[in-house]
Specification:
Distance between the termini: 43 Å
Order of helices and strands: EEEE
Helix content: under 10%
Structural class: mainly beta
Radius of gyration: 21 Å
């Protein structure tokens, strides 16, 4: 989207000079080349490069996909409007554990 032009100087304060923009809506994915193996609502954390520990990166729907022809798997996590927050390949034999709050 292009940025909205700045308001003309000189007062007046006419709020309806510029129309309000609609929020961006992402189209639903149509993926016929992959099967969905697993879907779960998840919270995404990333280990900080500094000594700050784990940082919260968001909440969304995590899906595990497997390609129908080559068998490769990947994880995709999207937020509530559909923006991708994580898209990572999954190696064969890789294990995952549910982490519980202490």
């Amino acid at each position: 989207p292009t940025p909205a032009p700045s308001a003309p100087s000189g007062g007046g304060g006419d709020d309806d000079a510029f129309p309000a923009e609609e929020p961006t809506k992402l189209e639903k994915e149509n993926n016929s080349e992959e099967d969905i193996l697993y879907t779960v609502k998840a919270k995404y954390y990333r280990l900080s490069a500094s000594s700050d520990g784990w940082k919260d990166r968001g909440v969304g729907t995590l899906k595990l996909y497997r390609h129908k022809t080559n068998g490769k798997s990947r994880m995709v996590m999207r937020n509530s409007i559909g923006k991708v927050g994580l898209n990572a390949g999954v190696a064969k034999g890789q294990k995952f554990e549910k982490r519980r709050e202490a």
